[in-house]
Amino acid sequence: MGAIYLVRHGQASFGKADYDKLSAKGCRQSEILGKYFKQLVVPSQFYSGSLLRHEQTASHFVSGFGGSDLATVTHSGFNEFNHVEILVRYRPEWKDYSVMAADIAKEAVPRKAFQRAFSDAVIRWISGNHDSEYQETWPQFQSRCISALRAVIAQSADAKNIVIFTSGGPISVIAQQILNLGDREALAVNEVLANTSVSKLLYSGDRLSIGYLNNYSHLELAGHDWVTYR
């Protein structure tokens, strides 16, 4: 039986025009995870989505782990859904980032206001009522993520501990598939996944199960201030 560790990326640059890079805290979270992992598991293979925040998480993880000769294999199937497109389809005026920033800044709690809008935008996306408007529909996204996971398993028959650096969307879709969750339940999983949290899958042949989901004890041990979700 093999194990796959799905790692959500470190804290990205929330509220910035370029979200797709780690914040200083996100870099440190990834290093903390690497140091923690060294005490538990010896990875036999690394995979990463192709987004910058995935690659940076992998790099800082390896730095914390103490260096490794294992190359990281890039697989775009583990990329997050296009949150910018999904937001803009819901609020077309937010195509202009300055307009979105100004609208959110007017709210009493900007982060919560953004989260409400984002949740509504994602619900619109998964509804299936507007599929023609999106480059990638919700069913296509689900299929992509599961296909990527199956491809890794097929290519890594002899690997025992595989680490995949990805995002909350793919992790929640994979959990949905294994646990037979509804779409809203999958979104609920996504909303609580902490940055650099680890979800462990167990596999043997075609069988998949979840060992644990959303473990971020490495951050709690480092101090509660390290725990973030966006």
Which terms would index this structure?
230 residues; alpha/beta; Rossmann fold; 2 domains; 6 strands; 16% strand
Short description:
By secondary structure, this protein is α/β, with parallel strands linked by helices.
Description:
The chain contains nine helices and six strands. It has about 230 residues and is of the alpha/beta class. It has helices at about 25-40, 50-65, 85-90, 95-105, 110-125, 140-155, 170-180, 185-190, 215-220; strands at about 1-10, 45-50, 70-75, 160-165, 200-205, 205-215. Helix 7 (about 170-180) packs across helix 8 (about 185-190). Strands 3-2-4-1-5-6 form a six-stranded mixed beta sheet. Strand 2 (about 45-50), helix 2 and strand 3 (about 70-75) form a beta-alpha-beta unit. The longest helix is centred in the middle third of the chain and has 18 residues, at about 140-155. It folds into two domains: about 1-80 and about 135-225, 3-Layer(aba) Sandwich (Rossmann fold); about 85-135, no CATH class. The two termini are about 35 Å apart.
